[in-house]
Amino acid sequence: MYDKASSNNNSVWPKVNGKVSFWLDQLGPITKREPLPSDITVDVAIVGAGFTGLWTAYYLLQERPDLSVAIIEKEFAGFGASGRNGGWLSAEAPGKMDKYAKSRGVQAAVDLQRAMFTTVDEVVRVAAKHNIDDSIQKDGLLYVATNDAQLERLRQRVTESTQWGWGSNDIGILNADELTQRVNVQDAIGALYTPHAARIHPGQLVRGLADVVESLGAKIYEDTAALRVNSGVVQTDRGRVKAKKIGVTLEGYQSKLAGRSRKMLPMNSSMIITEPLSEESWAEIGWHGAETLGDGAHGFTYTQRTADGRIALGGRGVPYNYSNSFDWNGRTDERAVKIMIERLNTLFPVTRGVPIAHTWTGILGVPRDWSATVTLNPETGIGMAGGYVGHGVSGTNLAGRTLKDFILEKDTDLTRLGWVDRSPRKWEPEPLRWLGATTFYRVYEVADAQENKNKTKATSPLANIANTIAGRK
Fold this sequence. Notes:
By secondary structure, this protein is an alpha/beta fold. Among the domains are: about 30-135 and about 200-265 and about 365-425, FAD/NAD(P)-binding domain, CATH 3.50.50.60; about 430-473. The chain has 13 helices and 19 strands. A hairpin with a 6-residue loop joins β14 (about 290-295) and β15. α3 (about 50-65) runs parallel beside α8 (about 200-215), α3 (about 50-65) packs across α11 (about 390-405) and α4 packs across α5. About 55% of the residues are buried.
């Protein structure tokens, strides 16, 4: 196990911890936009200047440039998950397809998945049109298996995906040799591959999108905290914003809004990023494309090769803090840093001794049934989108387009998708919420260790128990 105390490892330990994220820190100092000056009245108010809120405003103003749109943001655009994520623009639906089918029917769930395919290309198109992320590259997504149980789950996933709109050109299994042609992962025996994914630079995309939205006429009020949302009004710490239609797009941060503490679990997701690797190291790893890469473990690791030759890796080291608390500036717990460095070194042994440039932590929104939703109450005029469970970079774009249609009172294909108008039950009160979240991730760690040791195709029974506790089944 990684030992920070050794002299060799002190040179590896992250130089920066927190500061929101590497993605934003790399772009240089951020000057906040002006806060809300006083009470205002607009056509549409959006709470949260992350991807969902920005995409909603973007498509609203593309279709209706006459609308007045105000975006309320406590910190600055991209402060939350949008500026801290792993940079996966993936067509994976942000939830459980069987739950979407139960809510809206099988066809609505299939339509949602097909919409996710086109969403990846839509984000790439908009980014290219406005020149807001020069790192975007669509080379697909790999889920790597390093034991038989993981590979069997990936095979089952491919088989099950066919009922939800995936075809043979959308998803498949690579053997070990085929995987090595793309990337050399230690002890890998195969992988799931889908072409429907792209690498992004989260900081460039979210900050660039904010600038574009502003140029279209939206007003972004930063350093302005929304305290309460009621029909027709957003109460902030600097005044009231009156609007006929309101979109709440706060993801995990909505737990801080009055009356919403149990709607979303703000789950921690932490990341590390290396200094640029040498050409010799990249030759050994053989990762010459921009495939995003995850593993098949229950604990789950997600990585990307950045455009400037680093490896960014994330995971769930300390998944949840008691009573919805989190480090606002994104500092990562030491235990989580150790876990991620060890995982990086296990997947790519050549990275041992490579300095870690930065570590940070963000929160993602997790509904009780682990499935995102988009909705708008026509009586109150309040809409909500979120709960992407870590698959929000593409999901936010589709949600923004859907919320736009709701706000404009349009009945479209998007407003009939499988994730629309769902109301998952609330999370349990504390301390049950903390006990449950902490327990099931610890159980996943044990289950992964069992599967690595047992060398069978069977998933650990402990993982099935954890899935039941978590509500992921």
